[in-house]
Design a protein that fits this description.
10 strands; alpha+beta; 3-stranded antiparallel beta sheet; 174 residues; Jelly Rolls; 7-stranded mixed beta sheet
Amino acid sequence: MKNYLLEDKKAKSKSFFFRKENIIFNRKFISFLENNYLKYKKDIRICMHKNTSDNHHDMIILQQRKNFYLPHKHLKKGETYHIIKGKMMCILFHNSGKIKSKCKINRNDIFRTPLNTFHTMAPLTKYVIYHESKIGPFLKNNDSIFPSWANKFKKGKKEILKFKKKLKSRRTSS
């Protein structure tokens, strides 16, 4: 894989970029994501765009069910998720923190988050692999806005477990 991928050592999560353009993302790259997950037990992504300053970002991401992803929003960006393997729930929130809606996204399903809407993703299988597409560039600290009501999730696992239990107890649209 070293011939195809270059690791981004500055990224928050384990991330790679294609070394060249015009590479087809196929089964061997899915195997690469899964093997890295099994080896390191960490989330991992392959970026199909050239770099963080590109105007359009396409990423293939493996995320784990055991992790929690803080609710956030983007003022000028929507995100589109296309599930490759596994299942994921996308939860949309009112600005107050109350759940607005949630949907279960299965393999081959595509879902787009609205602009300026707090949301989070929750893998429903041990891990999920999905294609995320959104406009760039990546703006580091200015890319995502985190609500003040999400601070409760930073306090520890108790609040996260309570939230995950609440998600399971409420009906999911499909």
